[in-house]
């Protein structure tokens, strides 16, 4: 399978998940502004949404939406430690976290990538991000190491990825010490370090 990615974008979470399961995969960089890929293809011809992550399977099928990709990657590899069996409450808990990160946290960072966003709107948007992160910070107050419990999951890779954008947005994460500690735990994983290095983001 091949993952189309953009360095440091939300596709990093799918990339980390692919490395966590350990199977073979290819990477191809997409220019999400120009909608081209590094081998010169029209990215919209592969994914009409023009968005990363995009996963191309061996049979040519294309899967989009990071939360679907991460679960598919884990399920295909039989990685039940990363994605518990479908139909269990544990799996629903993973989906609960993935969906929260996707629809609430990820999309509250998105306006920072709009170059026309003024200072006032930026400050207001930081409050939106804070409100979304507060629920996660509070959830972590029961002492769990990762979002769904003691085991790392793709939801942690996803939260790590989107909170990396705080530095670009000028957003201070220090009000969220449990999230910062989770980020540190995620950052030290070999799969995460390998994914960052492959995207040219290490060090
Ligand atoms: N709903 C999609 C959103 C993916 C997304 O927002 N990707 C961004 C990068 S983080 C992108 O490709 N932006 C380019 C664009 O929307 O044109 C998902 O969850 O996978």
Describe it for me?
- By secondary structure, the protein is α+β, with helices and mostly antiparallel strands.
- About 50% of the residues lie in helices and about 10% in strands.
- It is built from nine helices and five strands; from the N terminus they run E-H-E-E-H-E-E-H-H-H-H-H-H-H.
- The protein has helices at about 10-20, 45, 65-75, 90-110, 120-140, 155-165, 165-170, 175-185, 190-200; strands spanning about 1-5, 25-30, 35, 55, 60-65.
- It has a five-stranded mixed β-sheet with strand order 3-2-1-4-5.
- A hairpin with a 4-residue loop joins strand 2 and strand 3 (about 35).
- Helix 4 runs antiparallel to helix 5 (about 120-140) and helix 4 packs parallel to helix 6.
- The chain starts with a strand and ends in a 5-residue tail after the last helix.
- About 30% of the residues are buried.
- The site of glutathione has 10 residues, from loops.
- Glutathione (GSH) binds next to loops.
In the CATH hierarchy, the third-tier topology of the largest domain is known as Glutathione S-transferase Yfyf (Class Pi), Chain A, domain 2
Q: What is the CA-atom radius of gyration, in angstroms?
A: 17 Å
Strand order of the largest sheet: 3-2-1-4-5
Alpha-carbon distance between the two ends: 28 Å
Let me know the number of strands: 5
List unreliable stretches of 5+ residues.
Answer: none
Q: What ligand species are in this complex?
A: glutathione
Strand content: 5-15%
Q: Level of helix content?
A: 40-55%
Rounded mean pLDDT is 97
Tell me the domain tally: 2
Q: Which structural class do you get from the secondary structure elements?
A: alpha+beta
Reported for the largest beta sheet, the result is: 5 strands, mixed
**Overall geometry:** globular
Alpha plus pi helix count: 9
Give the second-level CATH assignment, the architecture of the largest domain.
Up-down Bundle
CATH C-level label of the largest domain:
Mainly Alpha
Which H/E pattern describes the elements?
EHEEHEEHHHHHHH
